[in-house]
Amino acid sequence: MSADDSKVRKSAAEWQEQLTPEQFYVLRQSGTERPGTGPHLNTFEHGRYDCAGCGQPLFLSDTKFDAGCGWPSFFRAVTPEAITEIEDKSLGMVRTEIRCSNCDGHLGHVFPDGPPPTGLRYCLNGHAMVFTPE
Protein backbone atom coordinates (compact mmCIF):
# COMPACT_ATOMS: atom_id res chain seq x y z
CA MET A 1 0.00 0.00 0.00
CA SER A 2 1.38 3.42 -0.96
CA ALA A 3 1.18 6.46 1.33
CA ASP A 4 -1.55 7.85 -0.94
CA ASP A 5 -3.72 4.76 -0.32
CA SER A 6 -3.99 5.61 3.37
CA LYS A 7 -5.35 9.12 2.77
CA VAL A 8 -8.95 9.94 3.64
CA ARG A 9 -11.08 10.05 0.50
CA LYS A 10 -14.81 10.74 0.49
CA SER A 11 -17.41 11.94 -1.96
CA ALA A 12 -18.74 15.49 -1.72
CA ALA A 13 -21.99 14.07 -0.32
CA GLU A 14 -20.12 12.16 2.39
CA TRP A 15 -18.15 15.30 3.34
CA GLN A 16 -21.37 17.38 3.45
CA GLU A 17 -22.95 14.84 5.77
CA GLN A 18 -19.94 14.91 8.14
CA LEU A 19 -19.03 18.61 8.17
CA THR A 20 -20.90 21.75 9.12
CA PRO A 21 -21.72 24.05 6.18
CA GLU A 22 -18.87 26.38 7.24
CA GLN A 23 -16.38 23.51 7.50
CA PHE A 24 -17.44 22.16 4.11
CA TYR A 25 -17.03 25.59 2.50
CA VAL A 26 -13.52 26.03 3.89
CA LEU A 27 -12.13 22.48 3.77
CA ARG A 28 -13.72 21.11 0.60
CA GLN A 29 -14.43 24.26 -1.47
CA SER A 30 -11.21 26.12 -0.53
CA GLY A 31 -13.22 28.92 1.01
CA THR A 32 -12.05 31.59 3.42
CA GLU A 33 -14.04 32.78 6.40
CA ARG A 34 -14.26 36.53 6.93
CA PRO A 35 -11.53 37.81 9.28
CA GLY A 36 -12.54 37.73 12.92
CA THR A 37 -15.56 35.47 12.36
CA GLY A 38 -14.18 31.94 12.73
CA PRO A 39 -13.64 29.88 15.85
CA HIS A 40 -10.31 29.61 17.70
CA LEU A 41 -9.09 33.16 16.99
CA ASN A 42 -9.07 33.99 20.71
CA THR A 43 -8.42 30.49 22.04
CA PHE A 44 -5.15 30.43 23.93
CA GLU A 45 -5.65 27.39 26.19
CA HIS A 46 -3.08 24.61 26.11
CA GLY A 47 -3.97 21.90 23.65
CA ARG A 48 -3.88 20.79 20.04
CA TYR A 49 -5.57 21.93 16.84
CA ASP A 50 -6.62 19.05 14.58
CA CYS A 51 -8.08 18.93 11.08
CA ALA A 52 -11.88 19.25 11.28
CA GLY A 53 -12.16 16.85 8.35
CA CYS A 54 -10.07 13.89 9.44
CA GLY A 55 -8.73 14.61 12.94
CA GLN A 56 -5.06 14.73 11.93
CA PRO A 57 -3.00 16.80 14.42
CA LEU A 58 -1.94 20.08 12.77
CA PHE A 59 -0.73 22.65 15.32
CA LEU A 60 0.04 22.89 19.04
CA SER A 61 -1.12 25.76 21.23
CA ASP A 62 2.44 26.71 22.18
CA THR A 63 3.08 27.71 18.54
CA LYS A 64 -0.03 29.94 18.31
CA PHE A 65 0.33 33.72 18.36
CA ASP A 66 -1.83 36.79 17.84
CA ALA A 67 -0.88 38.04 14.37
CA GLY A 68 -3.60 40.70 14.36
CA CYS A 69 -4.83 39.45 10.97
CA GLY A 70 -8.24 38.10 12.02
CA TRP A 71 -7.40 34.39 11.68
CA PRO A 72 -5.73 31.92 14.06
CA SER A 73 -1.98 31.99 13.37
CA PHE A 74 0.86 29.60 14.21
CA PHE A 75 4.60 29.67 13.58
CA ARG A 76 5.09 25.90 13.15
CA ALA A 77 3.03 22.84 12.21
CA VAL A 78 3.02 19.90 14.61
CA THR A 79 5.19 18.04 12.04
CA PRO A 80 6.29 19.05 8.54
CA GLU A 81 4.38 16.04 7.20
CA ALA A 82 1.05 17.25 8.65
CA ILE A 83 0.54 19.81 5.90
CA THR A 84 1.02 20.05 2.15
CA GLU A 85 2.09 23.33 0.57
CA ILE A 86 0.74 24.31 -2.86
CA GLU A 87 1.48 27.42 -4.94
CA ASP A 88 -1.71 29.51 -5.14
CA LYS A 89 -1.94 32.08 -7.96
CA SER A 90 -5.57 33.04 -7.34
CA LEU A 91 -6.78 36.58 -6.64
CA GLY A 92 -3.99 38.09 -8.75
CA MET A 93 -1.18 37.21 -6.32
CA VAL A 94 1.19 34.35 -5.56
CA ARG A 95 0.73 32.74 -2.16
CA THR A 96 1.42 29.37 -0.58
CA GLU A 97 -1.75 27.46 0.25
CA ILE A 98 -1.65 24.87 3.02
CA ARG A 99 -3.76 21.70 3.03
CA CYS A 100 -4.12 18.78 5.41
CA SER A 101 -1.80 16.09 4.09
CA ASN A 102 -4.21 13.37 5.21
CA CYS A 103 -7.55 14.47 3.68
CA ASP A 104 -6.47 17.31 1.36
CA GLY A 105 -8.69 19.79 3.20
CA HIS A 106 -7.94 23.47 2.59
CA LEU A 107 -6.58 25.02 5.79
CA GLY A 108 -5.34 28.48 4.81
CA HIS A 109 -2.00 29.95 3.71
CA VAL A 110 1.54 30.33 5.03
CA PHE A 111 3.44 33.62 4.85
CA PRO A 112 7.09 34.53 5.56
CA ASP A 113 6.22 37.28 8.07
CA GLY A 114 5.87 35.35 11.32
CA PRO A 115 7.82 35.53 14.57
CA PRO A 116 11.00 33.68 15.54
CA PRO A 117 12.06 30.96 15.59
CA THR A 118 10.64 30.09 12.13
CA GLY A 119 9.68 33.49 10.69
CA LEU A 120 6.53 31.82 9.32
CA ARG A 121 2.87 32.66 9.83
CA TYR A 122 0.52 29.78 9.19
CA CYS A 123 -2.76 31.65 8.77
CA LEU A 124 -5.63 29.21 9.33
CA ASN A 125 -9.35 29.27 8.82
CA GLY A 126 -10.80 28.52 12.26
CA HIS A 127 -13.49 26.31 10.71
CA ALA A 128 -10.77 24.05 9.29
CA MET A 129 -9.75 22.97 12.81
CA VAL A 130 -11.10 21.49 16.01
CA PHE A 131 -9.41 22.24 19.32
CA THR A 132 -8.66 19.56 21.87
CA PRO A 133 -7.70 21.00 25.30
CA GLU A 134 -4.71 19.47 27.04
Automatic annotation (TrEMBL):
EC number(s) given by UniProt: 1.8.4.12
Signal sequence extent: none
InterPro entries in the cross-refs: Met_Sox_Rdtase_MsrB, Met_Sox_Rdtase_MsrB_dom, Mss4-like_sf
Annotated ranges, domain MsrB: 12-134
Origin: domain of life: Bacteria
Enzyme class: oxidoreductase
Cofactor or coenzyme needed: Zn(2+)
Protein keywords: Metal-binding, Oxidoreductase, Zinc
Reaction equations catalysed: L-methionyl-[protein] + [thioredoxin]-disulfide + H2O = L-methionyl-(R)-S-oxide-[protein] + [thioredoxin]-dithiol
Family stated for the protein in its record: Belongs to the MsrB Met sulfoxide reductase family.
HAMAP family the record matches: MsrB
Stated name of the protein: Peptide methionine sulfoxide reductase MsrB
Native species: Roseibium polysiphoniae
